[in-house]
Amino acid sequence: MPALDLVYNPVSGSFSYKRLADLAEALEDRGFAVKLMPTSEQGAQLSGTADLICVHGGDGTLRDCVQALGDNAGAIPICVAPSGTINLVARELGYARKPSRFADNLRKAWDRGPESWVHSPLYRLGDMPVVSCLSIGPDSHAVASVDGSLKRRIGRYAYVVALARQMRHWPRATMNVRGELVDGERFEYEAEAAIVSHAALYGGPFRVSPQAALEADSVELTTLSRSTRLGTIALSLAVMLRLPIARLGIAEIRSCRKIEFDRCVTPVQVDGDHMPECAYAIGPSGLTLRYVV
After folding, report:
1. What is the pLDDT of residues 89-107, one digit of tens each?
2. Of the candidates 95, 122, 149, which is a domain's last residue?
């Protein structure tokens, strides 16, 4: 019987104890030995004996689990039962929200074996795993000012509220961005805002770069040379309307292996959460996450 750590975030946007109980029961009915593991302010706690980690939460909870796994992140497979403010990884992988269907699909994927699972090279900002995306600029300033209680009440719309409040005092700062493209070519230029995508989706069901994907051994760097209110609104509308933002000259997009900044980037948004830590570089960790799907 496979041992499964069911890691859940009790303060995530759409958490429900009833749904957690239904999910645990469904997994046990499909032959998994389930151990409930709540997260805390210190991050995710794992049993250390699980054959499989099931994350019942959003991208931030998934990131905390990957952080807790450390060097075992590539050895212990993961799955995601959506329950959070934004679930970019779960959306891309097609995980079902209904507990019974999720458990059915997970059991079938487990029985098929690792060859059929999704393998996702892990990238890090400094020592911090990045499972879906990060941003620096007006977007990250808005995330840093999100009201936690409001986020628990209205979910992702709390980010919209924070961005609207920011319109009066719009943050702008130039940074030097340099790095290495997937073909090995070096680049360097200045920008006022940056989005780094590893998952295909950003901010919900939206795509910033058509090349972004969990299975890609690269990250997509989208930058605005001037991050004005109008430019940010144009980028947002183009993404929502699925317009080619690079071809229209709204932003620049590069497929990268490494990205470096000339200064401490703060505030920075990683997987939907504000990260106060200072870091200068994004690059491959040498580990590959395995999603059971």
Report:
1. 999 999 999 999 999 999 9
2. 122
